[in-house]
């Protein structure tokens, strides 16, 4: 067992035990983390391969507390999936349907606006909007959807459309991606969610989501979104056919783009749910795999402000533990999640604000209600205000 003394500058949190590990390969990595040096591709592979998850978690927690102290973020949000009709037929997905087949739906605009208003009485600060790649719906449908929401809910932040959807809208509307993003912004889109990134490596992408834009196109679209002034998130889908090198490659490519634009807010590892997908022979991810993605993500993505353990994906229990393994955010109330529930998720489809507060408090962290841009939200009985 080797022990490294913890640097003394941490003031806001109680003294911790020193770094200890049974895995000598972690020692040079620990030295780099303590010196705030960037980790290499090889370091990432070592972190994934280490059996000493507590030591990996210790390091990730160090970085997490350096950035956020004891605070853990959550928000009050609502998901809206306007259509599940999708031309892509990705093997990873149980949500998409071909047009006019059983279970396919597309919301009329009024229906989408009503959906936005329904759910819990707590005032939401964010609408999270993603859907399938519909072969016939014009870009104007999505722009009207967003502008109608802005008219009805002017205080609510609209986080809408993944890079895959943006690239698809642009192609269908015969616009450049930059023009498409400008129209989205003008309609009221405030930022973009991180979906569709999956795993960038071509070998994997060809198998799990062959009809989507490739990894470079996802990154190019994100670059344009950031240049247009839209913040965005980045996901990584793990627990299918990818290997450790594919995961590290994904993280390193995200990190390189973030060096360039600074436009990413949050990294969200997403656990693959196999039920009802073409990959339903694969096993579900385990708790330790989930926790490791959070920890390695925190350590490799030194330029990402936030790492989210999305409770819907990994379960509230794992999300809670993740708050000690590198995560600083557990996402929100969500309300009516569909994508993972079609793929067999057994978590509730939403949680109340007070449940999120309890999860965080019981992890020994300080709950901090944020808006989508991580500004403090203050609530009175009927309304909320955002610190700007
Ligand atoms: O891109 C699809 C994933 C993503 C499955 O930005 C699946 O704050 C697991 O991106 N098993 C959409 N995952 C969701 C998403 C997201 C979620 C929460 C917060 C944010 C954010 C973004 O869901 C897709 C895909 O990677 N997905 N099918 C499945 N069977």
Automatic annotation (TrEMBL):
<keyword id="KW-0408">Iron</keyword>
<dbReference type="GO" id="GO:0005506">
    <property type="term" value="F:iron ion binding"/>
</dbReference>
<keyword id="KW-0479">Metal-binding</keyword>
<feature type="domain" description="Radical SAM core">
    <location>
        <begin position="72"/>
        <end position="305"/>
    </location>
</feature>
<dbReference type="InterPro" id="IPR058240">
    <property type="entry name" value="rSAM_sf"/>
</dbReference>
<dbReference type="InterPro" id="IPR013785">
    <property type="entry name" value="Aldolase_TIM"/>
</dbReference>
<feature type="binding site">
    <location>
        <position position="90"/>
    </location>
    <ligand>
        <name>[4Fe-4S] cluster</name>
    </ligand>
</feature>
<keyword id="KW-0004">4Fe-4S</keyword>
<dbReference type="GO" id="GO:0051539">
    <property type="term" value="F:4 iron, 4 sulfur cluster binding"/>
</dbReference>
<dbReference type="GO" id="GO:0102573">
    <property type="term" value="F:aminodeoxyfutalosine synthase activity"/>
</dbReference>
<comment type="function">
    <text>Radical SAM enzyme that catalyzes the addition of the adenosyl radical to the double bond of 3-[(1-carboxyvinyl)oxy]benzoate, leading to aminodeoxyfutalosine (AFL), a key intermediate in the formation of menaquinone (MK, vitamin K2) from chorismate.</text>
</comment>
<keyword id="KW-0949">S-adenosyl-L-methionine</keyword>
<dbReference type="InterPro" id="IPR006638">
    <property type="entry name" value="Elp3/MiaA/NifB-like_rSAM"/>
</dbReference>
<dbReference type="InterPro" id="IPR034405">
    <property type="entry name" value="F420"/>
</dbReference>
<comment type="pathway">
    <text>Quinol/quinone metabolism; menaquinone biosynthesis.</text>
</comment>
<dbReference type="InterPro" id="IPR045567">
    <property type="entry name" value="CofH/MnqC-like_C"/>
</dbReference>
<dbReference type="Pfam" id="PF04055">
    <property type="entry name" value="Radical_SAM"/>
</dbReference>
<dbReference type="Pfam" id="PF19288">
    <property type="entry name" value="CofH_C"/>
</dbReference>
<protein>
    <recommendedName>
        <fullName>Aminodeoxyfutalosine synthase</fullName>
        <ecNumber>2.5.1.120</ecNumber>
    </recommendedName>
</protein>
<comment type="similarity">
    <text>Belongs to the radical SAM superfamily. MqnE family.</text>
</comment>
<keyword id="KW-0808">Transferase</keyword>
<feature type="binding site">
    <location>
        <position position="198"/>
    </location>
    <ligand>
        <name>S-adenosyl-L-methionine</name>
    </ligand>
</feature>
<dbReference type="GO" id="GO:0044689">
    <property type="term" value="F:7,8-didemethyl-8-hydroxy-5-deazariboflavin synthase activity"/>
</dbReference>
<dbReference type="InterPro" id="IPR022432">
    <property type="entry name" value="MqnE"/>
</dbReference>
<dbReference type="InterPro" id="IPR020050">
    <property type="entry name" value="FO_synthase_su2"/>
</dbReference>
<dbReference type="InterPro" id="IPR007197">
    <property type="entry name" value="rSAM"/>
</dbReference>
<keyword id="KW-0411">Iron-sulfur</keyword>
<dbReference type="GO" id="GO:0009234">
    <property type="term" value="P:menaquinone biosynthetic process"/>
</dbReference>
<feature type="binding site">
    <location>
        <position position="93"/>
    </location>
    <ligand>
        <name>[4Fe-4S] cluster</name>
    </ligand>
</feature>
<keyword id="KW-0474">Menaquinone biosynthesis</keyword>
<feature type="binding site">
    <location>
        <position position="86"/>
    </location>
    <ligand>
        <name>[4Fe-4S] cluster</name>
    </ligand>
</feature>
